[in-house]
Design goal:
Helix content is about 50%, strand content about 5%. It has helices at about 70, 75-85, 100-110, 125-135, 145-155, 160-170, 175-180, 185-195, 215-220, 255, 260-275, 280-290, 305-310, 355-360, 365-375, 385-400, 405-415, 425, 440-460, 465-475, 480-505, 515-520, 535-545, 550-560, 570-575, 580-605, 610-615, 625-630, 635-655, and strands spanning about 25, 40, 45, 55-60, 60-65, 90-95, 115-120, 315-320, 345. A hairpin with a 2-residue loop joins β4 and β5 (about 60-65).
């Protein structure tokens, strides 16, 4: 049964109740119950009127003592529930599933009684969802709550950067209502449009206040106003505002980083569609990860990416505070001020990652969701994020047991930039190998394989050739892509040095099988290493940590090294290394003597005046292996003294028996 209400000509005039300016919402009808407002007594709200209450609404632990008539005339749901209720007065309704909770129902009730309501960015989404739940449509009254909240959203919220952020933040507790009413989509689109706009017309003023939604004044003073009025102080032309600091392209990072991960993904996706540079998208993702997963990015970890896209951060490092909370609270006492990007020098009192995450109140399940979501939105372009960030994300993904498909995708991304990795980033604990090894060597092996596949693909891809090179190739004329070849070779050499350093570190693990060491050492082509000193150092470390290896196993281990690629210093060390097999020592000695001979020969060639004289002066110092054995250097003679004459004769026999194996 529908109840008609009486009009009050004193409010709204002839506007039909469509007034929503200045953020003050009022109804031109009071449902026949005049009141001066609402009173809160403990956990109960009462209407300030002499008419006794005939309706009790319970939402959570709050009670609302109201009157049926004002709510029936504006709410289809209340009309239906009261009509279906068979309870004696006062009628009791329980609305625990009302979106927005007691706060939203309080505002909706005040609207029904004609009490003015202040609409803000923090309450509009809850009130809009509550209006939909209560079915406060235009069919019941012109200018009802749904119409007025929609008007405020469209004309006030979506035109403001600050309000769009705060409304989207407030939608976190309103699922699925906010999604179904398109509030999340509209706010995401609004934020994306403003983030992609040219920031040159915005004045950037340092405020020294944290952009926190819990403190609206602070947030308002540190966020740009998107008002198209020419008089807006944030749209000053260079001539009118010569002293204002230009806004960097990362000005929006801090504001969007207060959003929950699913809403952040919506915003980044919308920004990507609008064509923002992939470097900025990647930097925003790294900034978000640093805020929500503090142990993921070390201090200053994002700074290199910032400088690479010309943000002009100077020598400052980015500080990620561990004191933030899920509601986007203060960034902590180390925050030095700024519009959105938090920039500071070195901070004091850093906590470990576990303490930070505990302070954020993020459960492992939520952490896993954040990592999976970040992996899915990383731009596909190479160098959109740093290799260090990818490896730290991979470490977190392994620890949190992220979906295998996403881990594989992340490993491929690391392979694209593997030459940029550092040893510290590669030392990922073996979370999934049941304690077999200290570090995840299999993971590094896979990363190296992805790198080699990527290098092979890039080397043979026509898209990497210049137009002139493509023209020669299409005509059947072979033309080397020298720049690309040099780049690939340099990348392989950097990776070789990295792998050698990694092998040196993991070789100290007594549980590391010889096969894993050998496979990883031999994964790179021979051309990747111009010097095997790093590989020799790794082999020596493995021999130190595994003294029980058999002679056969030590020979097998040393087979991955080319003695001819050792430097003079490495040769001198190897000649006196008791851990090496004797055959390897002989190879090293022979290589050392050949290098000395060649060096002297080259010197003689340079000093000769004619080619004939030079050729005549060339006399190899070591004509054959017999001379090598007889002319063993002092370093090897030391072994003879140490093991005695009988031992040395045995060694000499072993050396002669193995002559055919010596290179």
């Amino acid at each position: 049964m529908m109840w008609e209400s009486e009009s009050d000509s004193g409010v709204g005039g002839g506007g039909g109740g469509r007034e929503y300016g200045n953020g003050v919402l009022s109804s031109n009808k009071h449902g026949g119950v005049k009141t001066d407002g609402f009173e809160l007594r403990g956990q109960s709200w009462f209407v300030a009127t002499d008419i006794p209450s005939d309706l009790l609404v319970k939402i959570g632990d709050m009670n609302f003592h109201l009157h049926k008539y004002p709510l029936l005339s504006r709410s289809g749901k209340m009309n239906r529930l009261i009509y279906e209720s068979r309870e004696p007065e006062p009628t009791i309704l329980i609305l625990d599933d009302l979106p927005g909770g007691p706060e939203a129902f309080e505002l909706a009730s005040k609207f029904c009684y004609g009490v003015p309501v202040d609409l803000t960015a923090t309450n509009i989404s809850g009130l809009r969802c509550a209006a939909e739940y209560l079915e406060m449509t235009e069919d019941l009254e012109e200018g009802n709550l749904i119409f007025k909240t929609e008007a405020f959203l469209s004309y006030v919220v979506l035109s403001s950067w600050r309000d769009s952020i705060l409304v989207l933040k407030s939608c976190e507790k309103l699922s699925p209502w906010a999604e179904n009413l398109q509030i999340v989509r509209r706010c995401s689109e609004s934020i994306a449009w403003k983030a992609c706009s040219n920031p040159k017309g915005i004045r950037w003023a340092y405020t020294g206040k944290s952009p926190s939604p819990s403190t609206n004044n602070n947030f308002a003073s540190s966020s740009p106003k998107w008002n198209e009025s020419k008089d807006s102080s944030f749209y000053c032309s260079p001539s009118r505002n010569n002293n204002s600091q230009p806004v960097p392209p990362d000005w929006w990072f801090e504001d969007v980083s207060i959003l929950r991960i699913d809403h952040f993904v919506r915003v980044i996706t919308a920004i990507k569609v609008k064509g923002m540079r992939f470097e900025l998208l990647g930097a925003a993702i790294m900034h978000y990860a640093g805020k929500w997963l503090p142990g993921l990015i070390k201090e200053g970890g994002v700074a290199p990416a910032m400088s690479s896209i010309g943000l002009g951060l100077g020598g400052d490092e980015m500080s990620v505070s561990c004191g933030s909370n899920s509601s986007g609270g203060s960034s902590g006492p180390d925050w030095k001020g700024g519009l959105h990007m938090v920039i500071s020098g070195k901070t004091n009192g850093h906590q470990d990652s576990a303490a930070c995450i505990a302070g954020l109140g993020i459960s492992p399940k939520d952490q896993r969701m954040i990592v999976e979501s970040l992996i899915s939105i990383i731009p596909p372009q190479k160098d959109s994020v740093s290799c260090s960030f990818l490896l730290r994300l991979l470490r977190a993904a392994s620890m949190l047991k992220v979906a295998p498909a996403l881990i594989t995708e992340l490993e491929k991304r690391v392979g694209m930039q593997f030459e940029q990795a550092t040893l510290q980033d590669l030392l990922i604990p073996g979370y999934n190998n049941k304690g077999e090894t200290m570090y995840d060597v299999d993971l590094v092996q896979r990363l190296l394989e992805h790198f080699l596949v990527q290098e092979q693909t890039e080397g043979s891809s026509p898209s990497r050739m210049s137009p002139s090179q493509s023209m020669y190739t299409d005509a059947g004329i072979p033309r080397a892509n020298s720049n690309n070849g040099n780049s690939n070779q340099n990348a392989k050499m950097r990776v070789a040095r990295l792998v050698d350093s990694y092998l040196t570190e993991v070789a100290r693990d007594r549980n590391l099988p010889l096969t894993k060491f050998q496979v990883l050492a031999e994964a790179l082509p021979e051309s990747a290493r111009t010097c095997d000193d790093g590989l020799y150092r790794a082999i020596d470390s493995y021999l130190k940590a595994h003294p029980t290896l058999s002679e056969h196993e030590r020979k097998r281990l040393c087979r991955v090294m080319d003695c001819q690629k050792l430097s003079m210093d490495a040769c001198m060390h190897a000649a006196q290394n008791e851990r090496l097999p004797l055959r390897v020592v002989v190879q090293v000695l022979f290589s050392e003597q050949v290098k000395i001979s060649n060096a002297l020969a080259n010197t003689s060639l340079k000093e000769s005046t004619t080619l004939g004289e030079a050729m005549g002066a060339y006399q190899p110092m070591i004509p054959n292996r017999k001379t090598l054995i007889e002319a063993t250097p002092q370093s090897f003679q030391a072994r003879r003294v140490g093991c005695g004459e009988e031992g040395y004769k045995h060694v000499e026999i072993r050396v002669r028996d193995g002559e055919n194996e010596v290179c």
